[in-house]
Design a protein that fits this description.
single chain, about 260 residues, 9 helices, 11 strands, binds S-adenosylmethionine
Length: about 260
């Protein structure tokens, strides 16, 4: 597993410390954005949350059928204690998902997981998701990423993450594209109180994506990514593209550079 769980970062393995740190940097608001702008689940739908941690996101979701999977038993115990009766929680990893969750989902979520996984694990996760999503379902992932626009403070913050596989946006998208040809990538620098760039992938089941997509967005899925930063957008000179939901995004082109256990509360 490609994550650091020793040294000073070991303290983050304590669920309460993890939650407090998340709250300090503004992660609750970030999760709300994920739920409202990307996940868009509605009541009654089925959601699989891989790498769910203490399941902080569950408190922001409508009444859905929620399954959370994580490799850390203490996070899962905390999740089960907080959300008694609202979800089912399983100890597992990307290779045990088939045994844990052999059914269809309307959405699959991985918040802060991919950068803890090596490439083979990420491919296994996307491969599993591609076979388990409902016809109009989606998989949403969000992770820190490295870009060439970051300053030393932001780079140091991202390097200090417990996940040791922080990638470029292009690298994340390439891994998803093997299972999801229709993947939209968003870069966001506005989600936390600290300088941090997040790469958000929305992977659509099916070949053509959700109904109502404009041609422009289809092109995005083949290699153009949206970058959104309110501070940079003004006067940046890059074309603005309107989405069907009426929101405008700054867009730019990707450079071709160089065994399982259920946890009971
Ligand atoms: C940054 S935390 C995110 C937790 C949660 N999604 C959240 O938003 O707070 C990453 C999580 O991925 C879990 N994780 C790391 N490697 C994993 C693996 N191979 N399979 C399942 N979970 C894993 C960790 O235990 C941790 O809970």
């Amino acid at each position: 597993m490609a994550q650091v769980t020793r040294g000073v970062r070991a303290i983050l393995n304590l669920p309460l410390v993890y939650e407090a740190c998340q709250s300090l940097v503004g992660a609750t608001r970030a999760r709300r954005v994920i739920v409202q702008e990307y996940l868009r689940t509605s009541a009654g739908q089925a959601l699989l949350d891989v790498g769910c941690g203490p399941a902080d996101i569950l408190g922001l979701l409508p009444e859905i059928e929620y399954i959370g999977v994580d490799s850390d038993a203490s996070y899962l115990a905390r999740a089960a204690q907080r959300f008694r009766g609202r979800g089912r929680f399983y100890l597992g990893d990307v290779y045990t998902l088939e045994a844990i969750a052999d059914r269809q989902f309307d959405a699959i979520l991985a918040v802060g997981l991919l950068h803890h996984l090596n490439d083979a694990e990420v491919e296994a996760l996307f491969g599993f998701a591609a076979t388990k999503l409902a016809r109009d379902g989606r998989m949403v992932t969000i992770d820190p990423c490295f870009t060439d626009r970051q300053g030393p403070v932001e780079r140091a913050l991202i390097r200090s993450d417990r996940g040791k596989n922080v990638r470029s946006p292009d690298a994340y998208r390439a891994l998803a594209a093997k299972s999801f040809p229709n993947t939209v990538l968003d870069l966001r620098r506005d989600l936390l109180h600290i300088p941090y760039t997040h790469c958000i992938l929305t992977c659509h089941a099916g070949e053509t994506g959700p109904p109502g997509l404009s041609t422009g967005l289809k092109i995005e899925s083949r290699g153009v990514f949206r970058e959104r930063n309110p501070l940079r957008s003004a006067g940046s000179g890059l074309p603005l593209e309107a989405r069907p939901d009426g929101v405008s995004y700054e867009t730019t082109r990707l450079r071709s550079r160089q065994p399982q256990a259920a946890v009971s509360p």
